[in-house]
Specification:
The complex is a heterodimer of chains A (about 375) and B (about 475). Chain A has two domains: about 1-45 and about 150-220 and about 315-370, FAD/NAD(P)-binding domain (3-Layer(bba) Sandwich); about 85-145 and about 220-310, D-Amino Acid Oxidase, Chain A, domain 2. Helices cover about 30% and strands about 25% of the residues of chain A. Chain A has helices at about 15-25, 55-80, 95-110, 120-125, 145-160, 205-210, 280-290, 335-355, 365-370, and strands at about 1-5, 5-10, 30-35, 50, 80, 85-90, 115, 135-140, 145, 165, 170-175, 180-185, 190-195, 195-200, 220-230, 240, 250, 260, 300-310, 315-320, 325-330. Chain A has an eight-stranded mixed β-sheet with strand order 7-8-6-16-17-18-15-19. In chain A, strands 10-3-2-14-21-20 form a six-stranded mixed β-sheet. In chain A, a hairpin with a 2-residue loop joins strand 12 and strand 13 (about 190-195). In chain A, helix 1 (about 15-25) runs parallel beside helix 8 (about 335-355) and helix 2 (about 55-80) crosses helix 8 (about 335-355). Chain B has about 475 residues and is an alpha/beta fold. Chain B contains ten helices and 27 strands. Chain B has helices at about 35-40, 125-135, 175-185, 250-255, 275-285, 305-310, 370-375, 415-430, 440-455, 460-470, and strands at about 15-20, 25-30, 45-50, 55, 70, 75-80, 90, 95, 110-120, 140-145, 190-195, 195-200, 205-210, 215-225, 230, 245, 265-270, 290-295, 315-320, 320-325, 335-340, 350-355, 355-360, 365, 380, 385-390, 400-405. In chain B, strands 9, 10, 11, 12, 13, 14 and 27 form a seven-stranded mixed β-sheet that branches. In chain B, about 50% of the residues are buried. Classes of the chains: A alpha/beta (about 375), B alpha/beta (about 475). The interface of A and B includes residues 290 and 293 of A.
Chain lengths: ~375, ~475
């Protein structure tokens, strides 16, 4: 039986990022256990976007910090973080005014969001139909990164250090000591002794929780996305968001495909079913062509589904939880990928020193047990 | 270049239309695809590839390979091999990934509709035509969908007479069988034909059909019969992507449907039946075939087909392979060479052939993707050409409302495709309760004929492979 300082369950952006920062802080004796392959869960199915345009102080701080880290990670690990901005389209005066207030909050925390006129919005993305817009919010520091470049970048990075990354290894049991501390993590292929366990299993976090007798407040909601055939790259640079059109988000990948989706319907129930639906294809087509009419010429090339692993208040659950040495990093409700560097750094700091300057307190999982629900962060993109 | 004085086919004069290509006016025959019309005028390069800006020309000619994408009337990525040329069309070459138009009219709210049908048949080749006719004869409402602008699949491109016993259409040319079946489908009041229509997915809610880039139809069938045929396989050698390298079926479409000669001289790669037949068809169209190159030590196709082309003096070079295609913008020649039993090249054997056409007939892969999307269980089966669905003798897949027939169930030929289509159509009618009573009889008859067709030592491997994917 191997003994490891830290076992991380889940090889998505969260788990890999936590392992990266732990090794930065000198904890090399780390194993990441991924039941499938790296990025095979929500990470590899996400819309690729990274933004600091949120409406609450904690999330803005987390994402402002994350964007700085994304830049450095891109350099060090070798992927592209393309800071092409997020462009929120506004369709009424009321919406515009609401976002003016949000902009003030974002500016006060160092996020350089600006309010654009419809004409200025069109200069950023020529094919946009701006005829019905009252304005747009734009943060040039927001951007996108290809999830598979990111996870394979981490994978290569770990080949040189002591972080052990194992794919196709499923955790089957977590054993606790009598006094309630962690003892062993048993996998389908070998057992580890550890005192620190990180649950970064995304949509499967509740199953890991169950192994410790915990009923985690995380539920998987199917979220679908599409990508079209490629067009000349550089045509749709920003991530374009339109709340009016079913919370649609869309952007262009570096190869040229238009990637994105629309919000989860209100009557959707938690499910592990990732079958794609014709209903989504129709909704996404209507929304996208309303935002950019010429997208009616774009054929959908692929269509897939992943999970928004959702917490009761739509905010992540981050920190040590119930079992000493058990850290939860899950329940992002749709923006875990973009937040990964801040979560990685913050959780690694909690594990190594017990404290962090990042506002992880705000996401303390015990808030749910205490009934202190936060305002839901806007879930899209 | 038009085909002149064909021994079997005639191409009657049709109305001439005019469209523009790169700002210049070009002519086309009514009913001809854009790619065929351009080919006739010597335009082989239709676009430059997305990433590396390599020249791209016609390859499969049936809308499956995306090698012929052009911008038509401002719409990017139009498959010009299955889009008919029309008066006044504006056709432009794409240099790399195309521009997304900056302006467009909004999508019409009426652009989708929801419908139902007893039987949906996807693919209008031999299997799909027979499936449609059988289900419709039994009294079912049938919708027959095909991406191409006309029905018939590969059947309407076969100028040779079929073999076998006379009740299997032996002695009749494929093209005549095809015309008969297409005529019967068009005349049948229970069959609605939707050509120019792509089936984009088999969803829980319905099958998604995209018609002429204009209308999205959500069709709810009682039974679905997938008869999507196959795609040409490709082999690796330098410049295998240059215009002038065609799939064998691509050449057939160009010559035998549109009456356009693909060029003056050719080398055919692969001496299976398709390679031998397309060689003979090239000779019929007046193209000089310099050699048939076959990597195996023996000819794979029937002796009769090989003898026919030998009579024309075309050498069939076994143990030979393509080393490279030579050319910048199109095929200018090909280097071939002989290999020994260890697949090592015999250096002194290499030779250069000055040809403009390299026709690949190196096998076909079943077009299984809709079956995969439908959740049908698949098996990788090399003898049958690739992924094929598990099914029973009545062509039912592991989803009881989804059938398969023809090459999509495993690569064989047109006769077996027609028999399988009949079985699938008849069983679908019985299951839907619309059968007129003769369907069981038809199924028994077809099962017997399939057994006869697959008899003999030549088909031992095929029989074994089919047994391997059959259940119940």
């Amino acid at each position: 039986m191997k003994s490891r300082d830290v076992i991380i369950i889940g090889g998505g952006s969260t788990g890999l990022s936590i392992a990266y920062y732990l090794s930065k802080f000198g904890v090399d004796d780390v194993s990441v256990l991924e039941m499938n392959y790296v990025g095979s869960g929500s990470t590899g199915r996400c819309g690729t976007g990274i933004r600091a345009q949120f409406a609450d102080e904690a999330t803005i701080k987390m994402m402002k910090h994350a964007e700085g880290e994304w830049r450095e990670l891109a350099e060090e690990i070798g992927f592209e973080f393309r800071q092409t901005g997020y462009l929120y389209l506004h369709h009424t005066e009321e919406e515009l005014n609401q976002y003016r207030q949000i902009k003030e909050l974002q500016n006060s925390l160092g996020v350089p969001t600006e309010i654009l006129t419809p004409t200025e919005a069109r200069e950023l993305c020529e094919p946009l139909d701006v005829s019905k817009l009252t304005g747009a919010s734009y943060n040039p520091e927001d951007g996108k990164a290809h999830p598979f470049e990111v996870v394979t970048g981490f994978k290569k990075y770990f080949q040189e250090g002591n972080v052990e990354l194992r794919e196709n290894v499923k955790v089957v049991e977590v054993e606790l000591r009598k006094e309630g501390r962690l003892k062993k993590v048993e996998t389908a292929d070998g057992t580890y002794e550890t005192e620190v366990l990180v649950n970064a299993a995304g949509g499967w976090a509740p199953a890991v929780g169950e192994m410790m007798g915990l009923d985690l407040p995380v539920e998987p909601y199917r979220h679908q996305a599409i990508i079209t055939e490629p067009f000349k790259p550089g045509t749709i640079e920003p991530m374009v968001i339109s709340m009016k059109h079913e919370s649609a988000y869309l952007t262009q990948t570096e190869r040229g495909g238009i990637i994105g989706g629309v919000g989860t319907p209100e009557d959707e129930r938690p499910t592990y079913d990732t079958t794609e639906t014709l209903d989504f294809e129709e909704r996404v087509s209507r929304a996208f062509t309303a935002i950019i009419p010429s997208l009616k010429y774009a054929r959908i090339l692929r269509h897939w589904a992943g999970y928004y692993a959702t917490s009761p208040d739509g905010n992540p659950l981050l920190g040590e939880y119930k079992v000493p040495g058990h850290y939860l990093a899950a329940g992002y409700s749709g923006h875990g990928y973009m937040m990964a560097p801040s979560v990685g750094e913050g959780i690694a700091e909690l594990i190594t020193s017990g404290e962090t300057e990042l506002p992880l307190d705000y996401y303390d999982p015990e808030r749910i047990d205490r009934g202190e629900l936060r305002d839901a962060a806007v879930q899209m993109g | 270049m038009r085909v002149k004085d064909h021994p079997v086919l005639s191409f009657p004069e049709r109305e001439e239309i005019t469209f523009t290509y790169q700002g210049k006016e070009v002519t086309a025959r009514q009913g001809e695809t854009i790619a065929a019309a351009l080919h006739n005028h010597g335009v082989l390069e239709l676009s430059k590839s997305g990433d590396k800006l390599r020249p791209r020309g016609l390859f499969c000619s049936i809308g499956k390979c995306s090698s012929c994408l052009m911008t038509v009337d401002g719409v990017p990525n139009v498959r010009t091999c299955i889009t008919l040329a029309q008066e006044g069309m504006v056709v432009e070459k794409q240099e790399g990934f195309p521009d997304l138009p900056r302006e467009a009219e909004p999508l019409e709210p009426s652009s989708t509709e929801t419908r139902e049908t007893d039987v949906l048949v996807i693919g209008g080749g031999p299997a799909g035509l027979k499936a449609s006719l059988t289900a419709a004869d039994a009294g079912g409402d049938v919708t027959l969908v095909d991406e191409n602008p006309f029905l018939g699949g590969q059947l309407i491109k076969q100028t040779h007479k079929f073999f076998g016993s006379s009740d299997l259409d032996a002695g009749t040319r494929g093209i005549a069988i095809g015309d008969d079946l297409v005529g019967a489908v068009k005349a049948h009041e229970n069959i609605e034909e939707m050509t120019g229509t792509s089936a984009v997915g088999v969803y829980k809610e319905a099958v998604g059909l995209y018609k002429n880039m204009e209308k999205f139809v959500k069709l709810n069938p009682g039974k679905l019969i997938v008869a999507t045929g196959a795609t040409e396989k490709m082999i690796p050698f330098p410049n295998n992507d240059l215009p002038g390298v065609y799939g064998a079926g691509g050449i057939q479409t160009l010559m035998n449907v549109h009456g356009v000669k693909p060029g003056k001289s050719a080398v055919i790669v692969g001496a299976g039946n398709v390679g031998l037949i397309v060689t003979y068809q090239l000779l019929q169209a007046g193209v000089d075939v310099q050699a048939v190159v076959e990597v195996a030590p023996e000819i794979g196709g029937y002796f009769v087909h090989a003898a026919k082309i030998r009579r024309f003096g075309v050498p069939i070079l076994t143990c030979h392979t393509v080393l490279e295609v030579v050319g910048e913008e199109r095929v200018e020649g090909v280097r071939i060479g002989e290999i020994d039993e260890n697949s090592e090249l015999l250096q002194e054997s290499t030779q250069y052939l000055d040809v403009g056409i390299v026709g690949l007939s190196v096998g076909l892969s079943p077009s299984y993707k809709l079956l995969a999307h439908a959740g049908c269980e698949l098996q990788l089966n090399p003898v049958l050409g690739g992924y094929v669905p598990i099914r029973d003798q009545r062509m039912r897949t592991t989803r009881d409302d989804v059938y398969v027939a023809g090459d999509a169930s495993g690569i064989e030929e047109a006769t077996s495709a027609m028999l399988e289509g009949t079985i699938a159509g008849a069983d679908a009618a019985i299951e839907l309760g619309v059968g007129g009573g003769r369907e069981e009889e038809k199924i028994d008859d077809c099962l017997n004929k399939l057994k006869d067709l697959r008899a003999g030592p030549y088909y031992r491997e095929l029989r074994k492979s089919i047994q391997g994917v059959e259940i119940g």
